Amino acid sequence: MSEVVLETNLGGVNLLKRGKVRDVYEIDEKLLIVATDRISAFDVILPNGIPGKGEVLTQISLFWFDKTKNIIQNHIITADINEYPSQLKQYIKLLQKRSMLVKKTEPILIECIVRGYISGSGWLEYKQTGKICGIELPKNLKESQKLPEPIFTPSTKAESGHDQNITFEQMSNMIGNDIASQIKDISLKIYDKASQYALEKGIIIADTKMEFGFYNGKLMLIDELLTPDSSRFWLVETYKEGQPQDSFDKQIVRDYLLTLDWNKTYPGPVLPDNIVEKTAKRYKEILEMLTL
């Protein structure tokens, strides 16, 4: 099993923040985003990570950023470490495949979620209200069922704890109707293009979340894109509506944790080797299926 990168320390480079997975550094008005192998579940970062996870997330994001650049500009400057600033050369081995140099944008603090199928928090909300984020849906939908058409269901972006679903009207009040409408339209276009491509590879993209920001007043796509951490990927050949699906994400970890007597607060339990290995294999599998 390859070495696990849980934390990066780039001496002499300004660490802006550590997220649940990514370490973000600031270099001359640019950002260096490094995806570690950390894994969180139930909003708790677990003690041990998943080897290669950060590389998978970065490579999948780069793949989709390139595939969707005709829809909207994104924040990527380069992921070629040979083009990185000289102060990063000593960290080449660490940064290889798991980092990207990006424009420093002003983020819009809204998770832009598109759902093509009804699952997760959307399914729970629908069972209670018949709606998701204020959108009225047909009656008697089943869990994991394909929706008549994809829907845009934004949420607030919480630094800690859970994001909260909001209506499109609430989003418009927060950022203005013109920008909200533009983001909704772009998000739906990206989902449509990506989901059609993925279907050809035998993958259903049930839902995904995107983030946007402004750079010199121009709207652009930022953060990660269509990764197993931000999307639900299901196999076409095993898909069956009316039940939960087997996802290409950290569901293996969640399922294991639910068997433990753990109260879902810090510190989280150490994952056993077999769970780590299964999860690592799952992440690599989706990278290969989508990009090869």
Automatic annotation (TrEMBL):
Which GO terms are recorded in the biological process aspect for this UniProt protein? 'de novo' IMP biosynthetic process
Q: Which reaction does it catalyse?
A: 5-amino-1-(5-phospho-D-ribosyl)imidazole-4-carboxylate + L-aspartate + ATP = (2S)-2-[5-amino-1-(5-phospho-beta-D-ribosyl)imidazole-4-carboxamido]succinate + ADP + phosphate + 2 H(+)
Give start and end of each SAICAR synthetase/ADE2 N-terminal domain: 16-265
- Name the pathway: Purine metabolism; IMP biosynthesis via de novo pathway; 5-amino-1-(5-phospho-D-ribosyl)imidazole-4-carboxamide from 5-amino-1-(5-phospho-D-ribosyl)imidazole-4-carboxylate: step 1/2
Q: Does the entry feature the keyword Isomerase, yes or no?
A: no
UniProt keywords, alphabetically: ATP-binding, Ligase, Nucleotide-binding, Purine biosynthesis
InterPro entries from the UniProt entry? SAICAR_synt/ADE2_N (IPR028923), SAICAR_synth (IPR001636), SAICAR_synthetase_CS (IPR018236)
Q: What class of enzyme is it?
A: ligase
User: What Pfam families does UniProt report for this protein, alphabetically?
Assistant: SAICAR_synt
Q: Does the keyword Acyltransferase apply?
A: no
What Gene Ontology cellular-component terms does the record carry? cytoplasm
| Gene3D superfamilies found in the cross-reference section | ATP-grasp fold, B domain, Phosphorylase Kinase, domain 1
Which GO-annotated molecular functions does the record name?
Answer: ATP binding; phosphoribosylaminoimidazolesuccinocarboxamide synthase activity
Which EC numbers characterise this protein's activity in its record? 6.3.2.6
Which PANTHER family does this chain map to?
PHOSPHORIBOSYLAMINOIMIDAZOLE-SUCCINOCARBOXAMIDE SYNTHASE
* NCBIfam families named in the record: PRK13961.1, purC
The UniProt entry's sequence similarity note says: Belongs to the SAICAR synthetase family.
Q: What is this protein called?
A: Phosphoribosylaminoimidazole-succinocarboxamide synthase
Q: Lineage of the source organism?
A: Bacteria, Pseudomonadati, Campylobacterota, Desulfurellia, Desulfurellales
Q: Which gene encodes it?
A: purC
